[in-house]
Specification:
Blueprint lengths: L1 H25 L4 E7 L7 E5 L13 H8 L6 E8 L5 E10 L5 E10 L1 H14 L12 H18 L9 H13 L8 H9 L3 H10 L3
Length: about 210
């Protein structure tokens, strides 16, 4: 029995290592993936992809690993919690405990994402998208107005758990009423923009406008 359990545990570990390899290659170099064999807590780390934390194969289990060993009912998935490296870099971490057939935790798959570079990119994007507030001549561009229409349509579709092209007839007619109330039907070529975005004919939109009763 002990031999069978050992074989089952090793099969789980081997599968987790393959999974870690796939995840690591997909999200390199930002995501560290670590496989823990909780059956040997003193040297639980058996595989590391994209090493960010400086740990090594053979290092002991973390506090989460020990907590799972002590309590089989411990939370299995702990996602997106804050972590930090010794040099101050911020990490976003996720830990997934793996149970065997008897319900005991035997392994864990842990992901650590370095947020530093993403914060840098966000800073660049904020600077790039910054708009000067000095007063000056204003102009209304058709593309901007079209974007207003599309933004309203996207928000409406999201509220109805749908996509713009999947809206039902009644939902589309309600959308047209909303667009009319918002003054968006007064925009030049609004009917054409709406029809194209919803993948219906302009005649359909004209009919919806007539039925809006506003």
């Amino acid at each position: 029995m002990a031999e069978e359990q050992g074989e089952d545990r090793q099969l789980i570990i081997d599968q987790l290592i393959a999974l870690a390899s796939g995840i690591g290659k997909t999200f390199a170099p930002f995501c560290e993936v670590v496989v823990h064999d909780l059956s040997r807590s003193d040297h639980a780390v058996v595989h590391i992809e994209n090493n960010l934390t400086g740990r090594a194969v053979g290092d002991p289990a973390t506090e989460l690993g020990l907590a799972r060993l002590a309590d089989p009912h411990y939370k299995q998935v702990i996602a997106n919690y804050q972590n930090q490296l010794k040099d101050g870099r911020q990490l976003k971490s996720t830990s997934v405990g793996i149970r065997d057939g008897s319900g005991r935790y035997v392994a864990a798959l842990c992901l650590n994402i370095d947020l530093t570079q993403f914060h840098s990119v966000l800073g660049i994007l904020e600077q790039f998208s910054r708009i000067e507030t000095e007063s000056g001549p204003l102009e209304t561009l058709e593309t901007t107005n079209n974007d207003r229409i599309k933004k309203h349509i996207n928000a409406f579709a999201a509220r109805h758990a749908s996509t713009p092209r999947s809206l039902k007839t009644e939902e589309r007619q309600t959308l047209v009423r909303e667009l009319k109330l918002a003054g968006l039907l007064d925009i030049r070529h609004a009917s054409s923009t709406i029809a194209k975005y919803l993948n219906v004919s302009r005649a359909t939109i004209y009919n919806d406008i007539k039925l809006s009763n506003i």
